Structure of Gamma-crystallin M2-like:
Amino acid sequence: MQFFLMTFFPFCKIVFYEGRNFQGRSYECSGNCPETFSYFRCCNSIRVHSGYWVLYEKSNYMGYQYILNRGEYPDYRYWMGYNNCIRSCRMFPPYRGSYRMRIYHRPDFGGQMMEFMDDCPNIYDRFHYRDIYSCNVTEGYWIFYEHPNYRGRQYFLTPGEYRGWRDWGGMSPTIGSFRRMRKEKHSPLMQVSSSSSTRTETSRVVTIRCNSIRVDSGYWVLYEKPNYMGYQYILNRGEYPDYQRWMGYNDCIRSCRMIPHKIISPKLIYMYEQKLVSAFYYRGNYRMRIYERADFGGQMIEFMDDCPNVYDRFHYRDIYSCNMMEGYWIFYEHPNYRGRQYFLRPGEYRRYTDWGGMSPTIGSFRRMMDFY
């Protein structure tokens, strides 16, 4: 039998709030809770004061899982939640021992096997299979992720045998990456290779690695590549202690720009000692048309409001072109405002590559407004 060296925090605390921005009825928890419904009906914001926590969408530690460490989460998007439903939670201690597990490409520990003792950002590159059907965690705590580079749904695994993917709560055997659950030493908000400088409004090139961000006010689009190219991340006011919190695929931010907004007060975003100041704000209407085919062909429908599920209203899963007539919008890869994001300004987009899309599939979209 394996013995694990574990050190508990002297006091672990998490606070759940029914309202966004830590408003409304709250519940303070310092240990495992298999049923939270008697304490709060919904959860729209969370403060983790200390400890490491796994939150579950359903009672008795079932449903989607969200792994949180110390920090503030002003609404459920900040913990990558699919909704505001948290029905159980449990605390686990920092672990200081070794890490070891074996993964298998068939159930009941059958087929190809490989042993790991470190993180794996892309399982297919090392395991040569896209699915894990069973695994044996012999030492340490691990997190499975649905997609490579620690993206998508998360599954928390404690030491033990998992004979099938349902044993760890998986929706399917597909696992894109995994890593050890360790206490992370956060790096500075931004690591700057050159001397610190001040940028205003937008920047086509930001030659820095970015591991955390604090947005004091305003709305911003960050890009993985220079000149507003690559994956996009839309951020509003809040703290993002690591790149997972803004749903980043890595720590690479190469350009950014400010989004005009309804709020009249000055807009600031702090990235370590770098400061960007906005100067103009949008106060108008919102209107756009989406099309089934490129160059504004095929079925068309006009929108002036948010759409949590494109297929329910458009009856197509793909948008090949669109005309943004008024306002600023965000396209999302999946329904309910999940997945990759694409920021669209007024203008004509004759094909999905014009807004930086990897494919024409858009699951939802909404107006760029004050979410609070």
Summary: The two ends are 51 Å apart (CA to CA).
